[in-house]
Structure formats: structure tokens, C-alpha cells
Design a protein that fits this description.
By secondary structure, the chain is of the alpha+beta class. The protein has one domain: GIY-YIG endonuclease (3-Layer(aba) Sandwich), CATH 3.40.1440. It has helices at 5-12, 36-44, 50-54, 69-80, 84-95, 106-120; strands at 16-23, 27-33, 57-66. It has a three-stranded antiparallel β-sheet, sandwiched between helices. The longest helix has 15 residues, at 106-120.
Length: 121
């Protein structure tokens, strides 16, 4: 039997995570996946991103869940523009307390950006 239109709607609603890896040399990597623990294993075996092939992952440090791939991808891009300290602070703030995060997590991102700007003045 073929897939129905409803199957696509269910797949589109699948939660995705933004995850943080601690890598060799004190470096960090941020990625997205619907199965972050499995993706970590792919990175660990040297089959993941070029960055993690060069800087081997040591630990899956944090996972924050989003309602869908689009929301996770949007947050990944925004996090990658922040300084390392702000990225780590964002994961600290949201990883421990969330099971599923709505797409409107910009509040947390904005507060980190504000703090960073305030500390520069």
C-alpha cells in the first residue's frame, strides 16, 4: 500500500532536537536531529559532519526539543551566530527543563543577547 496524505502530516509534526556536543580540543558542535542520541553515535564513528570528523565528539552535552524540523533548524542557525559563552548558557537554561519546546523560544535567545550586549557597555 502507498502512503496517504495523512502520513505526510504526521511526519511533518515529528519533534526535532537541537543538540550540543562537547568535542576534542575544548570545542563544541551544534546540530539538529529527530534522534540526537543516534546522531551522536554517527558523529562518534567519524561518519557525521566534517567538523566532528576533525574534532571528535566526547559527549552529547545537551538536547532541547522543538515541535518540528523547521523550528529546530531556525534555532540552530541563530545559536551558531552567538559567542560560545552565550550558546552554552542557552543550552544550560533550556536543556534541563524542557521535554518539548514550542517554536517561540526566541525569548530565551533574546535574553542571552541582551545580557551579552549589556556586559559590553
Amino acid at each position: 500500500m502507498g502512503a496517504s496524505a495523512d502520513d505526510g502530516a504526521v511526519a511533518a509534526a515529528k519533534p526535532w532536537a537541537v543538540y550540543l556536543l562537547h568535542c576534542a580540543g575544548g570545542r563544541s558542535y551544534i546540530g539538529i536531529s529527530p534522534a540526537p542520541h543516534e546522531r551522536f553515535e554517527v558523529h562518534r564513528t567519524g561518519k557525521g559532519a566534517a567538523f566532528t570528523r576533525a574534532n571528535r565528539p566526547q559527549a552529547l552535552a545537551a538536547v532541547v526539543w522543538f515541535e518540528n524540523r523547521s523550528a529546530a533548524a531556525s534555532m540552530e542557525v541563530r545559536l551558531k551566530t552567538l559567542p560560545r559563552s552565550a550558546k552554552l548558557a542557552w543550552f544550560e537554561r533550556f536543556a534541563a527543563a524542557t521535554v518539548s519546546v514550542p517554536a517561540t523560544l526566541d525569548v530565551g535567545l533574546a535574553s542571552l543577547t541582551s545580557r551579552r550586549l549589556c556586559s559590553l557597555t
